Amino acid sequence: METRRSVRGSSAHNFKSGLSFWLILWLVVMKPGGVAPCPKLCVCYPTPMTVSCQSQNLTIVPAGVPYDSQRVFLQNNRITELRADSFGFETQVLWLYGNNITWIEAGAFSNLRVLEELDLGDNPSLRRLEGGAFRGLEKLQSLHMHRCKLATLPHDLFHKLYSLQFLYLQENQLHFLQDDLFSDLVNLTHLFLHGNRIRALSENVFRGLVNLDRLLLHDNRIRQVNRRAFRDLGRLTILYLFNNSLAELPGQAMKDAQGIQFLRLNGNPWSCGCEALPLWEWFRKARISSSELMCSSPSQRRGQDLRFLRELDFALCPLPDPGSLAGTTTTTFSTKTRWWFSKHKPASSSKASYQKSSETVKAFPFPPVKPQYIPKAPVETIPAKYELSADEAALPKLDPEEYWANYGNEDSSIRCFELECPPNYDNPAFPSSSSITITPSLLHLLSFSIVTVSLHFLFS
User: Fold this and answer.
1) 216, 191 in Cβ contact below 8 A?
2) Cα 145 to Cα 96: distance, rounded to the nearest angstrom
3) Buried b vs exposed e over 233-268: b needs ≥16 C-beta within 10 Å?
4) Which pLDDT does position 436 carry in this prediction?
5) Taking the chain, what is the end-to-end CA distance rounded to the nearest angstrom?
6) Which backbone phi and psi does 44 adopt, to 5 degrees?
7) Integer Cα distance of 194 and 377 in angstroms
8) Can you give the pLDDT at residue 146?
9) 3-class DSSP state for residue 454?
């Protein structure tokens, strides 16, 4: 009996020893997150788990970064490539700025499903990106790619980045922005594109940015803005377009950005001839904080502020075409301008050289006449700059303060437009509609005539 008990006791002892051995071995091999070793040349901090490896001359992402690391700091190294499976699953903040990254493998961040901030700025060798570089980052809120010498952006680069709010693309070498490039960024609020080489803004370049609040486009080479470029930017409050090559800006584009509060357009060669009329009209109604808009042409208006030109400065401009690229509508000047211009009309002018507004045409009960096709002049024949004629230069001058003080106080006694007034309208002897008085005797005679005609039809 004692022999059996001793055998049983030794077996139990051996079992416990073996279990302890395997438990110790499991603890050593598995390395629970709380005791995971820190990668070489890095410093780790718990709660939240942070791995800091900045400024260590690393050429690759160090191996052994704990998979539960929430913050990974790898900035100011010499890392050249980013490959898939280089980062953990729980990383929320990843800083890689100030490296020498030249290539990012498609899907390099696909495991980072909870990543919120990615900083790739100041990588001057990162000149191109693959379309799937940011695949899987559906919770990303802030993306930094400033000063990377990027020349182009793939059309699907920001595909499904629905949570992105801040996008930093300034000081690259971007010449062109593709249509619908930002169409998935429905929650983007800040877009920084200044300091590039962008030349034009197309119709669909900002489509989908319905929550954009700030758009910085200064220090580019923008020469043309499509009249519908800002049609989705109804919540935009800050727009910077200064230091570009803009000579004109469609008024319709600014009407679409109805929430604008701060606008900077200085440092552009503004042309203040008839092409400036749509923008000038928009400024008359908009009450925003704006920079100055100094005219570069025509020569007579050089140095003047476009915002403070007078209505009379555009009196000789033809009515804009509603279907033109400027996106303007038919303009009707106030009665004050029409009255002044009718009195000071040059002798060489004739009624045939002017077009009546659409409201005047509708007032006549004649059937519509099908317009004849008139071929447009070639683009080469249109002068590059608008110069004031002698008639425009002869218009009286008005200070900006005086203009805004009198704006809206048109003379209500003016009852006809300059093209519709009788030849001797200015003659006091010419009877007007208000000078015809209806006397009691005339009223009785009119009533008697109506009764007589009625009886005639009744008993005939």
Assistant:
1) yes
2) 10
3) beebbbbbbbbbebbbbbbbbbbbbeebeebbbbbb
4) 45
5) 149
6) -120, 145
7) 36
8) 97
9) helix
- How many residues are given for the chain? 460
Q: Which domains does the chain have, with CATH numbers?
A: 174-316 (3.80.10.10)
pLDDT confidence of 216, banded at 50, 70, 90? very high
C-alpha distances out from residue 70 to 1, 41, 44, 55, 113, Å: 61, 18, 11, 20, 12
How far apart CA 166 and CA 116 sit, in angstroms, is 11
For 165, 247, 310, the CA distances from 400, given in Å and listed in that order, are 41, 22, 8
Residue-wise pLDDT for 386-422, tens only, equals 455 565 555 444 444 443 343 333 333 333 434 434 4
Between 101 and 379, residue with greater pLDDT: 101
Check pLDDT > 90 for residue 227.
Answer: yes
pLDDT reported for residue 400: 44
Query: Residue 400: which region, alpha, beta or left (left: phi > 0; alpha: psi -120 to 50)?
Result: alpha
- Environment class of 452 (CB within 10 Å of its CB; exposed 0-12, middle 13-18, buried 19+): exposed
On average, the pLDDT of the chain sits at 75
Tokens matching residue 32: 């629970």
Whole-number Å distance between alpha carbons of 74 and 194: 26
Distance (Å, rounded) from C-alpha 260 to C-alpha 236? 6
Task: Answer yes or no: is pLDDT of 30 > 70.
Answer: no
* Residues 428, 28: Cα–Cα separation, whole Å: 110
Cis peptide, bond prior to residue 37, ω within 30 of zero: no
Cβ proximity of 167 and 188 under 8 Å: yes
When pLDDT is averaged across residues 89-100 and rounded to a whole number, the result is 94
The average pLDDT across 339-360 equals 41
Q: What's the DSSP call for residue 242?
A: -
DSSP 8-state secondary structure symbol assigned to residue 320: P
Is 190 a residue whose pLDDT tops 50? yes
Instruction: Answer with the residue of higher pLDDT: 337 or 145.
Output: 145
303 touches 378 (CB < 8 A): no
